[in-house]
Every structure is written in C-alpha cells, then in structure tokens.
UniProtKB/TrEMBL annotation:
Organism listed in the record: Drosophila melanogaster
Main location per the UniProt record: membrane
Places the protein is found: Membrane
Molecular-function GO terms, alphabetical: ATPase binding; proton-transporting ATPase activity, rotational mechanism
GO biological process: proton transmembrane transport; vacuolar acidification
Keyword terms of this UniProt record: Hydrogen ion transport, Ion transport, Membrane, Transmembrane, Transmembrane helix, Transport
Transmembrane segment boundaries: 405-429, 441-466, 537-557, 564-588, 600-618, 639-656, 746-770
Annotated InterPro entries: V-ATPase_116kDa_su (IPR002490), V-type_ATPase_116kDa_su_euka (IPR026028)
Primary role: Essential component of the vacuolar proton pump (V-ATPase), a multimeric enzyme that catalyzes the translocation of protons across the membranes. Required for assembly and activity of the V-ATPase.
Name used for this protein in its record: V-type proton ATPase subunit a
C-alpha cells in the first residue's frame, strides 16, 4: 500500500547536466517519472528559450502526424494498438532527422494524392452528370423537327431563314444542366420571374443518389433544359444557374451528335474509373504502410517534444557548458534519479557525468502519496475534496474501511450487496481486458472497482446484521422466541394480535443479527426505527471523535504542542461531555432496563434519551409517574450539570486560548508585530496580525460548536436511508414479484417468470443503481464534511512528476 499514513518526504534537488547529455538525461527521467521540474525561466518568453526551434520542429511533425491520421480515419484504416512493452523509447537526436524526413515524405505524398484524387473525382462527377444530361434530354428533342435548337451553331447571315425577323419568330435557344432536386422548384420560379413567363423549362429526375460536389454526400439531383429566345435572356439564365449552384453542360440538339458525344463520354468515364481505381490502390498501400509505424511515430514525437519542453526549464551556467535545473523528488527515489543520470551520461558518452544536489528550502513541497490499484480509488475520493497539505495525516487510509462500512449501514441488504460484489469481482477479474475501454461512464465504475468490491462485502455483512435478503429474513439459527399461548388462544378469530413479552417468551439470545421473528411483528418498523436511529448516532459520534483525535497526530508531527491543549482538548471535551454522554446513556438504557425486573427499571419506566438530553442542555425537568424516576441512576443530574458547565467553559477555551498564547509568546520573545501581507496568504498561521488571528479563531470556534450539533444530526441519514432502502425493497417484493404466486394453474408458472423479470429489472435499476448512488453520495458527504473537517486542512498541491506515461495517457484522452 505504500506510505498511506502520510504523504512521502520530498526533497528539492538541483541537477547539473552537460548539454550533450541533457536530452538523454531527461529521457531517462521521463521513463522513471519521479521528478517534478521547476521552471527557472518564468520571466523568459516561450519564443526566446534555448530549445524553441526543436519544439517547433516537433509541433510540425505532430501536425503531419495528425494529417496522416485523419486521412486514415477517412479511409477507415485501423491503427495497431501497442502494448505497454512495445512502446518505443524517446528517439536519439540523430534519429530525429530520419523520422522528420520520413514524415515529410509521407505527408507530401498523401497531400499530392488527395489533391489529385479531388481533381479526378470532380472530373468523374462532371462526366457522370454530362452523361445524365445527354441521356435524359433525349426525349426533349426530335430528329424530325426542322427547328434550329443548337445553341452553339453559327447562323448564316445570307440565309433568308436567318434574318432578324425570322430569328425572332422561329429560332429557340436552350441551356441544359443539373441541379439539386430540393433547389429546382425555387430555381423554376426564379426563371419564370426574370423571363416574365417566356421560358419553357423541362426536367427529368436522375435515378438514385448522386454525390454532391460541395459536401460529398449523396443527394437527389435532376436534369433540366430551359428553352428561350434572345441572347440577353441567355445571360440571365446563366447567372441564375450560377446563383443556384446548378452545373451547365453543353448538349447538342442533333440526335446523331448527342449519340456520338455519349460514346465519347463513356470512354472517358471508363478511363477515369481505371485511373481512380489505381489511385485508390496506391493510396491504400501508402496508408497501410504508414499505419504500421504511425503509433510508434506518434509516441516518439510526443516524448521528444516533452523532453525539449522540460529542457527549456533549465538555465545555462555562466560558462554555458552546463545546464542547471531544479525539481522536487521523493526522498525514496533519489537513488533512482541518480542512477538514471549516470545511465544517461554513459549513453551519451559525456566526458563529465551529471550529478544532483539536495538543497534546503522553506517552500512547501508538493504532496505525493504512493498508491496502488486498490488504494488509488479511495485516494481519489479524498483528493477530490482537497489535496492534503505536505505530510498531513491522510484520511484515505481510514476511508478504505470507514467508507464502505458507512455505505453498508445505509445499503444493508445481503442480496443487493451480493449483486455489487459480483459486479465488482467481474471488473477485477477482467481488469486487463477492460482497461482498454475508454468510455467515460464505464471508466468511473472501473476506476472504483475495489471500492464497489468492499461496499458489496460490507453490505453483505450489514445484511446479515439486519437479517435482510431482498426484504426477507433468514432463519439460520432458529428464533430465540417461543410461543407460550395455547392453540385455542392463537386460533381465536376474535383475537386481532398477540403480545410476546421478552421475559416470558425469549429463552436465548439470537447468535448473530436480527431475530427473523421480527419479520412477522406488527411493530417491526417501530423497533427497527429505534434500533437504526440509535445505531446511526453511535456510529456518528465515534466517527467524529476519531476525526478530532487525528488532529493530535498532526499537531505532534508539526510540533504544535500548544495546540493539543488549546484546540484538541477543548474540542474533544465538548464532543464527549455532550454527545459522547448521550451515547453512554443509550448503552446504559439497553443494559439496565429490561423485562426481567419490576419497578423503576422496568421497560415502561425507561426514559426518553432525547428528552433527557434536551433537559440536560436547558436545565429542565419532567414529571414522571410512580414508581418511575426521571433519571436513570443516582447523581445523574449533578453529573449532567458538571458536564454542561465544562462544555460551556470549553467554548471560551477554544476561542481565546490560542490567540492569548500567541500574544504572550510574542511578548516573551520580544518579536515585533508582523506586517500585514500584501497578497493572499496560504492559510492563517502564527505570523499573522493579532486581529486576524482573533477573527480566524472566532470563526473556527463558532464553526466547530455549531457543526458539532449539526454533524451529529447529519449522521441520522444512516438511519433514514437504511429505512427507505428496506421499505422500498419490501414494496417491490410485495407489489411485483409476489403477484406471480397468486395463480395456481400453469399460467402462474409462466407469470412467475414475467414478474421475476420485472422485479429483477426494478431491483437492479432502482435499488442497486439509484439507491446505491444515493448512499454513495451521502457516504461521501459524511467523510468530507463530518469526518475530514475535524482535522484535514487540504491546502497542499499535487506532485506532478515529468512522466512519459502521464503525457501519453493525456494525449489519448484528448
């Protein structure tokens, strides 16, 4: 599990590396992933740093890689998936030139093929549309008509038929083309308007879908022919065609010429098909060849760019013969860093080996908690609240147990817990295969598979305690109650219910959990309400006391011994003397009051814990009938008064103790009062002004006193959700599954399967998923607010080492 109790010790190290060994050294450190480098050139622009040209080269290679990858996606070429052990190391600087040349060659070849392919595709579409025009306009013309419809024909001015008057009377011109079917009707109206109805328009729809030259998507198109008179109208029609993106094609009016032209177009189409096929084959070969190397190239370029980016953090020394860098390193990994530097110097054949010095600093180091796949999920829950301060007590260590336990208190059902356990077990067993899935929602469940596994185990445990399996009880050990009534009394029709008194009918203690006879009792909900309500308060107070106690560990580590007496002691006394005492009264009531005695200690005389606690705070009293007593034992009133007085004293103790101690300490040491900070500080320490210290302590005291009451009440959610979960489970059983048992014939056997399917679906969907998510969120709140607020500061920042693995993972997510 690593050092989970606290974050690891960190050291600020200074690295001295020769320029010729710098690239190899950073590459080795990137593979190890244990140094968080600091930028020593923050004031220098990114364009003025030493390795800016190398970073630009990497950006250019990344751009080429993205283009090649996009072309592969267009052609649906699958990229091979590299296993972790197959990932290449960062390339040597000498290999970069070869890699760059290879990428440039592949990129240029693909771009040239794409440009040529686009031109060929456009020509092919135009030839196809011309063929459609020639074929579909066949019915618009007749060989027998002696009318000159050839728009391209030159007229003989000496021919009497071609005189201006005759042309006005008999000659028609036409324009033929192709337009999208969805635009044709608007196109037709526009032509009618500009010609004032002097255009005769015919159309013939093209069978099937035709590729659109603008989007490349298949669309419906139609062939049109517009007949008109006059050169001016012809120019208008062409302008309208341009506006509507209609393609105009030459079309002779003579049948023989059209036939000859169709033959020519078919020949050209066959040639284009051959060329397109050969181009596609060549493109496929190039892409398939590149796809074999693209994952490796991509990883190599990313690593190379990351190395030069980190090298820009370094500063050259005065002589320019050495690069100086700084970074945070876990003390346990210092030897690893030294070995990596020595190995890099050997690889680069540097004359002077790189070395590292640990330097002293007053800066707060980053927080680094070493985790594994089991503890990582719990650590992420804690880090979501706030990154722990350096070497602060880590709540994730205790959350590994308390989190699934508090969840199970609200989710206590053996059957539902078994479903969670089976699901988490499947995720754990198949984790190698499932780790490759990148779907966001699934990754949330997969990342918390061990949390779900423990939640399932603890839910099975609390299910045994509650004796609840899909709202039914198990009679494993035999009920501890026995019937002391005769058969005649039990079978009496006038008797609505019978009462079983523990003194007469209980002959043993049920060994584990809840006695199954409570499943049949009319006061089942009342009994379980009382039991779970008290149980939630007991668990909550113990949880909060544990949280307050953890602050002692922090105070002792940071050597703030005065805070143990000025903060921890009044806080724990206030909590114990009020709510710890209430928990004691619950246990005392359970032990002392029973059905075996008469008089003041009989169950009828048992006082209400809530009323006793309210009277204790308000110093009130209540009248009790004889022979009952107001208090549970002699001297209880005096003890309660002392507890309340001491608890009230704890409030000014918390409020004034620490500020007065700091004031006296400053006067004793003769230290001058601190100057106010010009910027936002990182929390309130002993170096602030006294006014700020008093204000901060007042806020802290008010928050603690009020939150002690509200947080205790907040733990009642354990009781509320547990009751709601059990009742909803019972409703689903009675209203859905049990309906199938009401039919005796063979139809009943069929209906059982139907109702079971509905019940199983609702159980998994509502009780396991929705109720489980609700219980998870409530458990998270209890840890973040009620538990961690007692000792956890969370004012640190995360340790983010330079690691190739992290860089590659982030790149894949993007």
């Amino acid at each position: 599990m690593g050092d989970m109790f606290r974050s690891e010790k960190m050291a600020l190290c200074q690295l001295f590396i020769q320029p010729e060994a710098a690239y190899a050294s950073i590459a080795e450190l990137g593979e190890k992933g244990c140094v968080q480098f600091r930028d020593l050139n923050e004031e220098v622009s990114a364009f003025q740093r030493k390795y800016v040209n190398e970073v630009r080269r990497c950006d250019d290679m990344e751009r080429r890689l993205r283009y090649v990858e996009s072309e592969m996606k267009k052609d649906e070429v699958k990229l091979p998936v590299l296993r972790p052990e197959e990932e290449p190391i960062a390339p040597n600087p000498r290999e970069i030139v070869d890699l760059e040349a290879q990428l440039e060659k592949t990129d240029n070849e693909l771009r040239e093929m794409s440009a040529n392919g686009a031109s060929l595709d456009a020509n092919f579409r135009h030839m196809q549309e011309l063929k459609y025009v020639l074929e579909n306009t066949e019915g618009f013309f007749s060989d027998q008509e002696v009318i000159n419809l050839d728009v391209n024909r030159k007229l003989d001015p000496e021919d009497p038929a071609n005189l201006p008057g005759a042309a006005q009377r008999g000659q028609l011109a036409f324009v033929a083309g192709v337009i999208k079917l969805e635009r044709f009707f608007s196109f037709e109206r526009m032509l009618w308007r500009i010609s004032r109805g002097n255009i005769f328009l015919r159309r013939a729809d093209i069978d099937g879908l035709v590729a659109d030259e603008e989007t490349g998507r298949p669309v419906l198109k139609t062939v049109f022919v517009a007949f008109f008179q006059g050169e001016q109208l012809k120019q208008r029609i062409k302008k309208v065609c341009t506006g509507y993106h209609a393609a105009v094609y030459p079309c002779p009016s003579s049948h023989a010429e059209r036939k000859e032209m169709i033959k020519d177009v078919n020949v050209r189409l066959e040639d284009l098909k051959l060329v397109l096929s050969q181009s596609a084959d060549h493109r496929s070969r190039v892409l398939n060849s590149a796809s074999k190397h693209l994952p490796r190239w991509s990883i190599m370029v990313r690593k190379m760019k990351a190395i030069y980016h980190i090298l820009n953090f370094f500063n050259p020394d005065v002589t320019g013969k050495c690069l100086i860098g700084e970074g945070w390193v876990p003390t346990n990994d210092i030897s690893t860093v030294q070995d990596a530097l020595a190995r890099a110097s050997k690889i680069s054949e540097s004359s002077i080996p790189a070395f590292m010095n640990v330097i002293e600093t007053n800066e707060m180091p980053p927080t680094y908690t070493r985790t594994n796949k089991f503890t990582n999920g719990f650590q992420n829950l804690v880090d979501s609240y706030g990154m722990a301060s350096y070497r602060e007590v880590n709540p994730a260590l205790y959350a590994c147990i308390t989190f699934p336990f508090l969840f199970a208190v609200m989710f206590g059902d053996l059957g539902h817990g078994l479903i969670l356990l089976l699901f988490a077990s499947w995720l754990i067993i198949k984790e190698k295969q499932l780790s490759s899935i990148k779907e966001e929602i699934f990754n949330i469940f997969f990342g918390g598979r061990y949390i779900i596994f423990l939640m399932g185990i603890f839910s099975i445990y609390t299910g045994f305690i509650y004796n609840d399996v899909f709202s039914k009880s198990m009679n494993i050990f035999g009920s501890a109650w026995h019937m002391n009534y005769t058969r005649d009394v039990v079978e009496d029709e006038n008797l609505k219910y019978i009462t079983l008194r523990p003194n007469d009918t209980v002959y043993k203690t049920y060994p584990f959990g809840m006695d199954p006879i409570w499943q049949l009792a009319d006061n089942k909900i009342i009994f379980l309400n009382t039991f779970k309500m008290k149980l939630s308060i007991i668990v909550g107070v113990i949880h909060m006391i544990f949280g307050v106690s953890m602050s002692v560990v922090n105070f002792a580590y940071y050597k703030k011994y005065a805070s143990i007496f000025l903060e921890f002691l009044p806080q724990v006394l206030f909590l114990l003397l009020l709510f710890g005492y209430m928990v004691f009264m619950m246990f005392f009531k359970w032990v002392v009051y029973n059905d075996t005695v008469e008089g003041p200690l009989s169950p009828a005389c048992a006082p209400s814990i809530l009323i006793l606690f309210i009277n204790m705070i308000l110093q009130g009293s209540q009248d009790t009938p004889e022979p009952c007593k107001e208090f549970m034992f002699d001297g209880q009133k005096s003890i309660q008064q002392v507890f309340v007085v001491v608890a009230i004293i704890c409030i000014p103790w918390m409020l004034l103790g620490k500020p007065l101690y700091i004031m006296i300490k400053r006067k004793t040491n003769g230290a001058p009062p601190p100057k106010p900070q010009s910027g936002g500080g990182e929390g309130h320490g002993e170096d602030d002004e006294m006014g700020e210290i008093f204000i901060h302590q007042a806020i802290h005291t008010i928050e603690y006193v009020l939150s002690t009451v509200s947080h205790t009440a907040s733990y009642l959610r354990l009781w509320a959700l547990s009751l709601a979960h059990a009742q909803l489970s019972e409703v689903l059983w009675n209203m859905v599954f049990s309906m199938g048992f009401k039919y005796d014939s063979y139809i009943g056997g069929i209906l059982i399967y139907v109702f079971f399917g509905a019940w199983a679906l609702l159980t998994v969907g509502i009780l396991v998923l929705i109720e489980g998510l609700s219980a998870f969120l409530h458990t998270l709140r209890l840890h973040w607010v009620e538990f961690m607020s007692k000792f956890y500061e969370g004012a640190g920042y995360a340790f983010e080492p330079f690691a190739f693995k992290t860089i590659l993972d982030v790149s894949e997510d993007d």
